[in-house]
TrEMBL record:
Entry protein name: Esterase family protein
Alphabetical list of PANTHER family matching this protein: ENTEROCHELIN ESTERASE-RELATED, IRON(III) ENTEROBACTIN ESTERASE
SUPFAM superfamilies membership: alpha/beta-Hydrolases (SSF53474)
InterPro entries found in the cross-reference section: AB_hydrolase_fold, Esterase-like, Mycobacterial_A85_antigen
Organism ancestry: Bacteria, Bacillati, Bacillota, Bacilli, Bacillales
The organism of origin for this protein: Paenibacillus spongiae
Membrane-traversing stretches: none
Length: 242
């Protein structure tokens, strides 16, 4: 049974305006940690698929537990919602909306969060997190804006050939740290662009990133391409960076 203290979460709905996105705004959900105080400053976790991370990943409840019971430093979570019909177009590097979304994230969303919440403004205190294509777009945001982002949580990242080619063409990544997991039952996962072996994709991307000098905490586990698997590993992912 879940401790009721973990369920007493402060989650604020917010909206970031945009001149870049076609819809001109993006819905956000913001987790403010226990003991939140505006005169302090906090590390920040940015989650792609924000609604799913909060509802299925239970990231706010897990954060509460780690902060209250395990002494983890309090941090803010920014969940960035996505229209599932546009998700592949925004998150995949060859999607027609990808460049706009990446630019929005770094040049509009980040300044908005920094203007509204007491988050630390050093890339060492920012973490990007995503599942599947959310892990992919997190990597590409960090590759495009290395001076802003260098820590990534990738849960079964959808590192298709286009992503691998971009990473292989990139320069040194010795500033970058990644937490990567993949499920051993993800060897024939059907996506809207074909059937892929996610274990092979993640092994290949790990090797590319390793050769570029990135620090990687990589592991494979029994599991499928579902939130039930990813949720189990969110505590370890948070402990890796906070």
């Amino acid at each position: 049974m879940t401790d009721q203290r973990y369920l007493k979460r402060t989650i604020v709905k917010d909206t970031a305006a945009s001149r870049i996105l076609p819809e001109q705004e993006r819905e956000l959900r913001i987790f403010l940690p226990p003991g939140y105080n505006e005169v302090l400053s906090y590390p920040v976790l940015f989650c792609q698929d924000g609604e799913d991370f909060f509802n299925f990943g239970r990231v706010a409840t897990i954060a509460n537990q780690l902060i209250l019971d395990e002494g983890m430093e309090p941090f803010i979570i920014v969940g960035v919602d996505v229209d599932k019909k546009k998700r592949t177009s925004e998150y995949a590097p060859d999607g027609e909306l990808h460049d706009g979304y990446v630019t929005f994230f770094a040049e509009e969303l980040l300044p908005y969060i920094e203007s509204r919440y007491p988050v630390r403004r050093d890339p060492q205190h920012r973490v990007l997190a995503g599942d599947s294509l959310g892990g992919t777009v997190s990597l590409h945001i960090a590759l495009r804006y290395p001076h802003l982002f260098n820590k990534i949580i990738s849960l079964s990242g959808a590192f298709y050939p286009a992503s691998q080619e971009i990473a292989a063409r990139s320069g040194l990544m010795d500033h970058m740290s990644l937490f990567m997991i993949v499920g051993l039952q993800e060897t024939a996962f059907e996506t809207d662009s074909g059937t892929y072996d996610f274990v092979a994709l993640n092994r290949a991307m790990k090797q590319i990133l390793k050769e570029k000098g990135a620090a990687i905490l990589y592991s494979e586990h029994e599991g499928k391409h579902v939130w039930g698997f990813w949720q189990k590993h969110i505590p370890s992912a948070l402990k890796a960076f906070f």
